[in-house]
């Protein structure tokens, strides 16, 4: 198997330096007529993958927006990643912590919002 760096170089040689972000912000989901749910982020991601295939070499899903929906969001992310790989796209997961405000909001929704799927159990 060709190492990742060589695959990135080949993608850049074929499609240029474009790396397509998959950032399903709530406002974008609304604008695209999608629910603010795991199904909505899945559909958003799959649409971006379909649009990027054959036009770009790399996609970069922002994990925070998927993670906000707990295991259903991770399942949606898995589908988007599989679709991207099947389309011949390289994937760079944007999964850093301590990032910009919009993604910090996504992580906060995942981990700190009362009733969220990943809300930690609170001791009494």
Supply the key terms:
124 residues; mainly alpha; TIM Barrel; 3-stranded parallel beta sheet
If you had to describe this structure to a student in words, what would you say it looks like?
This protein is mainly α and 124 residues long. The protein has one domain (4-112): TIM Barrel (Alpha-Beta Barrel). Helix content is 54%, strand content 8%. The chain contains six helices and three strands. Strands 1-2-3 form a three-stranded parallel sheet. The longest helix is centred in the middle third of the chain and has 17 residues, at 70-86. The N and C termini lie far apart (52 Å). The model has no long low-confidence stretch (mean pLDDT 86).
Write the SSE topology.
Layout: H1 4-15, E1 19-22, H2 26-31, H3 38-52, E2 58-61, H4 63-67, H5 70-86, E3 90-91, H6 101-112
Parallel strand pairs: 1-2, 2-3
Provide a concise account of the structure shown:
This protein is mainly alpha-helical and 124 residues long.
E-strand count: 3
The poorly predicted ranges are: none
CATH arch. level architecture: Alpha-Beta Barrel
Helix content: 40-55%
Largest sheet: 3 strands, parallel
């Amino acid at each position: 198997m060709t190492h990742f760096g060589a695959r990135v170089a080949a993608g850049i040689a074929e499609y240029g330096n474009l790396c397509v972000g998959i950032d399903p912000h709530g406002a974008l989901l609304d604008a695209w007529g999608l629910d603010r749910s795991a199904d909505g982020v899945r559909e958003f991601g799959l649409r971006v993958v379909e649009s990027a295939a054959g036009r770009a070499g790399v996609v970069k899903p922002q994990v925070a927006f998927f993670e906000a929906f707990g295991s259903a969001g991770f399942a949606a992310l898995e589908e988007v990643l599989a679709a991207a790989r099947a389309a011949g796209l390289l994937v760079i997961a944007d999964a850093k912590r301590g990032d910009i405000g919009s993604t910090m909001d996504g992580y906060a929704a995942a981990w700190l919002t009362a009733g969220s799927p990943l809300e930690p159990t609170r001791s009494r």
